[in-house]
Sequence to fold (442 residues):
Amino acid sequence: MFNGKRRMKILFATIPMVTAVAGCAKEPYSGSAVEESVANKVAPHSLEAFHIAFAPGADETERTFSWHTRGMDKKAVVELNRLDEKDNVLSSETFEATVEGILRGQSRHKATITGLEQNQLYAYRFGDGQRAWSQTYTFRTQATEDADFNFLFFGDPQIGAGDGTQIDAAGWDRTVTAATELFPDTDFLVSAGDQVNRANKPIQYEGWFSPEELTAYPIMPIVGNHDAASFADYFNVLNETGLGGDSEASDFYFIYGNTLFIALNTQSDAVGEHREALELAVSENPDATHRIVLLHKSLYSSADHALDEDVLALRDGLVPVFDELDIDAVLMGPDHVYVRTYQMKGDEVVGETAYDKEGAAVDPEGTLYLTGNSSTDSKYYEMQDPSIYERYAAVALQLEEPTFMNVGVTDASLTFTTYKTYKTADLSVVDKYRIVKTEGDE
Ligand SMILES: [Fe+2]
Fold:
C-alpha cells in the first residue's frame, strides 16, 4: 500500500463493484443502472486488472488503453458503456484487445476505443472475453469543438530515484491529486519520461500507477532514458511512426482539438528520422492551429545535463526543424529543474518580441522551450554556472519543490502556468507565460 487511496486489488467473488473516483471533482458515478446492467451478465468470478492507463488516441474521439492481468490470458476485451447523467447506460460497446506478451507471469493488454463523443460520461471495465470482468471505472470526455481545453504537464516522476519507492509514489500521488483537483476538467495529462528510476523494477511502476486519478484521466507518457527498456510493457500510444525509435518506442503524434502534439523518442540520436516524423505529423495535420512537441531530454536546460553531448547533438539537429515547421512550444523533462527560454529561433533569442499590456507575447516569432522540474520530489539537479544558460533562459529555477504545469489552449492563445504542488500547500504560481496569436498560426 502506497497510501490510503491505493487502488483496490481485490478479486470480487460475485458481481464486480462499480466504483467512483474519489478526489475527482467530476460528477460522481453512483452506478446503480450500470450495476444492474453488469448483474445481467452475471460474472461468476472477477478479473484482476492492474497497471491501468489510458492515453489520448489518434484524436480526441479515441483512447488507448493498456493494462495487465495475471496468468496466461489468451483473449482480452474492454467494455465501454456510455452513460447519461443519471448513470443509465445509453449504449454499450466491446472492443477487442491484444495480448502482447507475458511479463513476469502477467499478461499485458492493449486496446483502442473509438467513436467517443464530447462532454460525455463513460464507464469501462476489462474482461477476459469469457465471463470474468474487472471492476468498473469511469471517465468523462471534454468538449473540444469550438471550445478551449487544457492539459497538465508533469516533469520526470522517476519513482525510485528519491528516498524510497513509497515516498516517491506518495509524492507523485500528491502532485497528480493536487493538479487534477485544481483543474478537474482537464482533458489529459502528460508525463515527460522517466516514469520510474529502474525499468526492471515492477515495484516502481506500482508506485507510478498508484494515483487512482489515472483511471479517470488520460495520461500521455513520453519515453525517458530510465524507463525506455520497459516502456512498451506498460503503455499504449498510437500513430507510432517507426522513426526515431527502437522496439520499445518510436516517434508518434496525435491531434487534440486544434493542436497537433508530436512526441519524439530522445533516446534516439537519429535526427534525420526525427525530422521525417515531424514532417509527417505536420503534413498529415495541416490545419492544426498550434503545434507542440513533447520530448524527454531538455534541449535548453540550466542543470546537470545542459551540456551533455547527446543533448547538444539533438539541439543542433532538431532546432532547425522546429524553426522550419513553426513549432510553438517544446515541453521537456529530464533535468529536474524549471527553465523557460526566451522565444528562440536558429539557436538564438529572437530579436524583437512584442508584448501586450498583460505581458503576453503577441504573434511571437520562434519557439518557446520549457523544462519541467520533478513532479514527485524524488530528485533535483544542480543549477550550473549562469554563463551556460543565461543566453537562452528567461527563467531558470531550482526550487527543490515538486511542480506541474497547466497548459491552456484556445484558438488564439497558449498559456503555460507552472504551480508548486504540496510542500507549500498553497499551489502558488511559479511562472506564467502566454502566447497570443492575432494573425493565425505564426
Ligand atoms: Fe529523470
Q: What stands out?
A: The radius of gyration is 21 Å.
